[in-house]
Every structure is written in C-alpha cells, then in structure tokens.
Design brief:
The structure is a homodimer of 380-residue chains.
Chain A lengths: L2 H5 L6 H13 L4 E10 L9 E5 L5 E2 L7 H14 L3 E6 L17 E8 L5 H8 L4 E9 L8 E4 L5 E3 L8 H6 L1 H7 L5 E5 L3 E8 L4 E5 L5 H10 L3 E6 L14 E4 L15 E5 L4 H14 L4 E4 L3 H13 L6 H6 E2 L11 H16 L21
Parallel strand pairs in A: 11-12, 11-14, 12-13, 14-15, 15-16
Antiparallel strand pairs in A: 1-2, 1-5, 2-3, 4-5, 6-7, 6-10, 7-8, 9-10
Helix pairs in contact in A: 7-11, 8-9
Chain lengths: 380, 380
C-alpha cells in the first residue's frame, strides 16, 4: 500500500501523507507542513495540496510540478527553527525575479502556508480516521491581533472545536466566514477568505475513499494494486475461504464470508465504492442485491457484459426481487470506462478510473471535449 | 518496467509476455504457448490472449479470470511432452461436467490452442520489434491433411512468409480465408475461420504502443510508472540535461535535447502517443508544433488548462505558425480523462487512461452509458 511512498515520496497520495503525519505525531517528531493556500494562473496542484517536511528525513508530497520543491524545503526548515508559521507568496510570473522556478519556466502565483506539525492536527486526523469529514480553519495571514496559525476545526455535525497547541480562531472571525465554511465543509475543496484583518484558510478534508472488491480470482490483485496506487483504501470481501492478505498484497483488509455479509465490509457507506467481480452469477447477484438494497454506497460496479446483467435481473425477478430506479442509478455495468483494452491491467485501469471519476462527481470522457475548468469549482 | 511481471505473473502485459518469449527463445528453453482461439458466452479474456508456460519456471499471462489456469498448465505440460499442438475446448456451461472451473462459477465456452514455443515465433516477434504489424495464421484444428500447427506469417506489406519449425499453411487455404486476413491484419484482433477441412486462427499482432513524455519534472515518474504498468513502452524526451534512466526508473529510453529534436524520440509515428508536459510555455510550444507538423503521431496531449493553450497559440500566431485542422484533431488539451482527481497519481491515471482509450479508438466515457458490446468488434 505504501509502494508509491517508498519509491517516489514526491508523488505520495493524500492517504499516505496522512499516515505519515500520524506516524510523525506518534513519535513526537519535528516536521513542517506546507499547504497550497491559493494559486493564480496555471498550477499543477490545487489549493489544499500538501507537502510534509520532517526535520529528519525526506520530504513527501507535492505543492507544484517540481518548480518550487527545493526552496520550499529550505523555507520549511526555517519555520521548523523559528516555530513561527507564515505564508509565503511565490510569484513565478515576475520575470525580473529569477529566483523561483523561472529557470524551469513555471508560471503562476502560488501562496504557500508553512507551519510546524503539532497537536493541532490530531483531532482532524482522528475525525477522518473515523470516516467523518473535517474542515480545518487556519488564520494564515493578517494585520490584526489574531496570531498567524490560530486554528479551529469543524466536525461532521458542524460543531466547532478548539485544538491543542493553537489559539482558536476568534468567534467574530468564524461568524464572518460562516457562509464559506458551510459551502466548503464536506466537499474536499480548499479556499482562502480574506476579511481584511485576517486571511483564513478553509481546508475541507474528506475521509479516504474505500474500494471494496467482491471476488476471489486472479483479476483482483492488479485492481487492488492500481487502486491503492491512486490512494483508495482497498478491502476485499471474498466469497471463498483460503484467501487472506497474502493473496491480495495490496488490499488493506481481506474478509471472507457469504455474499450477503458484504455489508460487514462496508466502512462508511458514503465513501465506499464497490466492484462486484466474483465471476459467479449467483454470488454476484447476492452481492449486488445486498449492496443496493441494504447500503447507500454510491457506486456498485458489476463486471461482465450487459447480457450477464440481464441474466442476473431475470434471476432476481424469479425470486420477486425488483431493484428500485434509485438503486439502478448506483449500479454501473458493464463496469469501467470505455478504454478498449482487454489485458488484466487495462481492465483494472478502466475500473479504477471509473471509481475515481464517480467519487469526484465526474463522468470520464475526454477533458478536451468538455467545457469549463478542469476541476469542478465550488461557487464563490 | 517489469514490475508487474515479477510481482504477479498472471497479470503480465502483452508487452512483457513478448519479452519473455524472446528471452526463452534466446536461451532455447522449452515452453508452451496457450492462445484463446474463441469464446462463447461471457469471458474475461478475448481471443488472442496468451499464456506462456515454461517447462521450468512459472507460467505467465492469463487466459481466463483464473477459472482454468491450473488445468491449462497441466495441458501445456502434456503438449510439451508430446510436442503435438492441439486445441482444447473447455465448456464451462455444461453443468454436468464439474471438472472445469464450475466450482468457481465461471461460465462460457472457451477454445484454447496449445503449442510448443519454437522458431516459428521468431519472425513475427522481429516484425513487431521493428514497429511493424504481423498477422500469424495457424491451423488449429481440422480433419484434412494439413498438420495442426501449420503456420504462415503475414508481414507489414501483406507478404506471406513461411516460418521455421512449421509446415506452411497451404495456398488454397490462404486463398479461402484471404478476406478475413485482409480485414484483420493491422487491427490487433483475433478470429478463427472454419472452412470445413481446417480451422485457422488469424491472430493480428500490433507493435507495442509508445508513450513519449516531453518534460523533466517530478510529475513524469508517476506517469511513466502507470504507463509502463499497463504495457506502454515509455520514452522520455527532456529539454534539460542532467536527467537519465535513473531519474525516470520506469522509462525505457531517456533522451535530452532541444524541443524540436523530439522527432528523434518518435519510433513509429502510428504507434506513438505523446504527452507534452515540460511546464515551460516556450518549450511546450516548440514540442507541440514539431509533433503536429513534422510527425503523424495520432495523439499529442498537452498538460495545462485551456487558457494556457490559448497563450501557446497566440505565441504561434505571432510567429505566423498556424496549425491545420487535421493537426488540431490530434491535439488533446487539457490532457486526460475527466476523473476529477488532483493528486500526481490521479493526474497520471487520467492521462494514461486517455492515451489508452485513443490507442484503442475509444472515447473514455462510462461503459454503462454506451450502447453495444464492451469491446469493438470487427465485422464478420
């Protein structure tokens, strides 16, 4: 699961980055966290992207395509020494200033907030671990009395919590940005709000997405590997005994049991994307039926051609089972995006790509054929 | 590049499988080749899918999702012992026969052709290595005088060649299936033709697809890794010195040079998919211009938002460069499929998925929203 990490720390997933933060916190190790607060112009990473710079050890994560990573590590070391969080603006458009990435030809203006990793992250990390969203509010700039780095965390039910090691964001400030908080919370987006005396980073964090694979055959491992590569937490629910974590080295959890017990393998419905691929019609039918009628998982991919799903529905109909329209909308069969490849890894890629698209509210298809910005924007 | 191979031989790519065949042939090692000749009903792999069973060593490749792999290895060992190629029909629909995969619930009828790996593959493998298509014609069944395993190879220009270790397919037979050969050659599809006295497998093989990456920054390695995972041969052309194979461990070839020398890094135009991602507007412009005007590569992905391409075109226009419509049709910007993820590996996945889709003539939307079969069929 941490293959990407060990091989190329720059391209570590958000999932792995959070694990590294937890590990550093457990060991009480010094580290700086760098967060993209805002970008202007074309930028590789969006606001909210993070880099983790341990005092001892290699930096992980990416805040640009590589234009700024070196100066940012220096800046992080400086913040580790002073303990004072601050925002730094890197203007890659200013051609008179050749110090920042211009040799590489990057452009855009990027605001990076750099802060020490401290106990203020423990609570939001615990919320995420629990399957709940967390929105972290941080004062990143300002001329007022509020210290830079002041932090308040918004939990699943909208409650605002103070956190250790930081001043809370003053209530007047929170009230002033209440609309933004409500709009951003639970979306996974990040915005900065400038209200004159202070600039607040509103950083909405979503729990990791689970990819739940139902099956036990040879086509699961390549899918588990690709899914884990792009940051899914992978659970395998196998209708056959005799399989475990060693059968699926890239799965985080492996359980075996009757298809109808697949509900036990669903963490948080809302963040679980399921793929039914046992190649056994009876087992597949039971798993699909259970997932669609007993859970609210937003995506149930079913492997196999259209004709096979017809057979499956006929078998349901014979038993008087009829799936409501709302259930069928969550079903995706034939599973995957239309990539045309027929090799095991190509099939796996097509499925992971669809699950990722659905998890982000996208439809696949080519970006060039689509209007509007690459990334969905939340309304200002 | 062979990560998938070593980790999970079952999900090896066609690219790697061919490399393994070449290696076994160089060492004059005994092995059997299993090819899916035909399928009826739902099947995980399509005709043409191959499995390689060395006399000593682990089998590689997949002919089903795992239902038949064990009996097939036994069969391959039998053919290695007798030296006699033959076709075997596995009827997974026949519920009275519990010997083939029924315990796993697989269904469908699958015809597998099993033969010894011999010098008859050297010529088609050399053609593919040279960037040319090859269509391998093999008599896989029949009651006539033609020995099972008789083989003739069709080269790039349609010439028919006999190959060592096998009888040629008789001219009368070749003439009888001439239409099928013409229709299949160069498509990468596989068909069997039954003309009464003999059944001929018409197996069209395409050279490996190249993914040519133009750039030098941190976002290249994750892209190279995913692309190599799914079977692309990866070439990096970097506009900066100081990079080599160690910078991009999953690239097969790394060259550095001026953007306009990118043509030197294009193997066969027709099978090269290019992604321009140097993050430098001037370099990107030159690379795009060169690829679109001096080569016929079918796909030039350009990283960055729509606005950046506008800038790039304005810069071209100032210099009197105007891209013809046919060139713009090959350009894909913003590059990638609409998956919505913003992390380095998610961006990489979106790009590899688009290149794969384009290489297969697909558009990358959701299969469930598309009519017709999952895989494009060539006309009968």
């Amino acid at each position: 699961m941490t293959q990407a990490t060990s091989e190329d720390p720059w391209s570590v997933t958000e999932t792995d980055l959070r694990e590294q933060m937890r590990s550093l916190r457990r060991n009480d190790a010094d580290a700086a966290v760098v967060t993209v607060a805002a970008v202007d112009g074309s930028a590789y990473r969006r606001p909210g992207a993070k880099m983790l710079v341990p005092a001892d050890g290699e930096a992980a994560g990416a805040v640009t395509a590589g234009c700024l990573e070196e100066p940012v590590v220096d800046l992080a070391q400086e913040i580790l020494a002073t303990g004072q969080p601050r925002i730094e603006v890197f203007d890659l458009l200013d051609s008179d200033d050749d110090s920042w990435g211009l040799g590489l030809g990057c452009n855009g203006v990027i605001d990076l907030f750099v802060e020490p990793l401290d106990a203020s992250v423990d609570r939001p990390l615990a919320m995420l671990d629990n399957g709940d969203p967390a929105t972290v509010l941080t004062v990143v700039d300002g001329s007022g009395d509020t210290p830079i780095g002041s932090r308040t965390v918004v939990g699943a039910d909208g409650t605002r919590e103070a956190v250790p090691d930081r001043e809370p964001v003053p209530t007047t400030l929170l009230d002033a940005i209440g609309d933004t908080i409500d709009r951003v919370h639970g979306t996974g987006s990040t915005q900065t709000v400038d209200i004159g005396s202070a600039t607040v980073l509103v950083d909405s964090l979503q729990p990791v997405s689970d990819l739940l694979l139902f099956g036990s055959q040879n086509d699961l491992p390549p899918l588990a590997r690709l899914a884990s590569d792009v940051g899914f937490r992978v659970t395998v629910h196998s209708p056959r005994g005799g399989v475990d974590e060693s059968t699926f080295p890239h799965a985080d959890t492996v359980t075996t049991g009757h298809p109808t017990t697949i509900t036990d393998s669903v963490g948080t419905d809302q963040h679980t994307y399921a793929v039914v691929m046992s190649h056994n019609l009876v087992d597949d039918r039971l798993a699909v039926e259970t997932l669609l009628t007993e859970t609210e998982v937003p995506y149930v991919g079913l492997m196999g051609p259209r004709e096979r799903f017809k057979e499956l529905r006929e078998s349901m109909a014979e038993d008087g089972v009829k799936l409501p329209k709302s259930a069928l909308e969550r079903l995706s069969t034939p599973v995957g995006l239309d990539l045309g490849g027929g090799e095991p890894l190509e099939i796996a890629l097509s499925i992971v790509a669809e699950a990722l698209a659905v998890s982000n509210g996208c439809e696949g298809g080519r970006l060039r054929d689509r209007d509007g910005p690459i990334h969905p924007r939340i309304p200002e």
